[in-house]
Amino acid sequence: xxxxxxxxxxxxxxxxxxxxxxxxxxxxxxxxxxxxxxxxxxxxxxxxxxxxxxxxxxxxxxxxxxxxxxxxxxxxxxxxxxxxxxxxxxxxxxxxxxxxxxxxxxxxxxxxxxxxxxxxxxxxxxxxxxxxxxxxxxxxxxxxxxxxxxxxxxxxxxxxxxxxxxxxxxxxxxxxxxxxxxxxxxxxxxxxxxxx
Length: 196
Description:
The protein contains nine helices and seven strands, in the order E-H-E-H-H-E-E-H-H-E-E-H-H-H-E-H. The protein has helices spanning 15-24, 32-40, 47-53, 65-74, 79-100, 133-141, 148-156, 161-167, 177-194; strands at residues 3-8, 29-31, 58-59, 62-63, 106-110, 125-130, 170-173.
């Protein structure tokens, strides 16, 4: 049986870095954000339906995330419409990944809104990456163009880190790369033992 591991964590907590470490250990990783990018790109499966629902959001055959975001901020009631278009396509992308890697012992699913979307119901194990609040803030504010106001807005719209830590089966603190990598390897050894 393949062990399905859900990986989540708030902005600036090291989720992408941790996902890359799993991939470097030979574990196939599905990235929810990357799936959305594929769907929104020129020729992407979501483009025709989004163009019908939000004509001004499509530029040169691809969804402009900035335009779409601005339109949703203007009319938040349209989030449900967008989700009705995108969620089934994301689920199909995820299923295709599962089908491709059905022989793998462990699969990792990098899902920013894991608990918010109820994904823990189909996963075997959940993992939250975390770091102290001051470390998180410093990491995010070091990103180009990021302001403190944007950071505070992003954090306010995410499930609190403390709640994710409580709900997750495992928590990895991402203070240093070496320590994080050691924890990833330790968790993989444990999961491989449990699912041998």
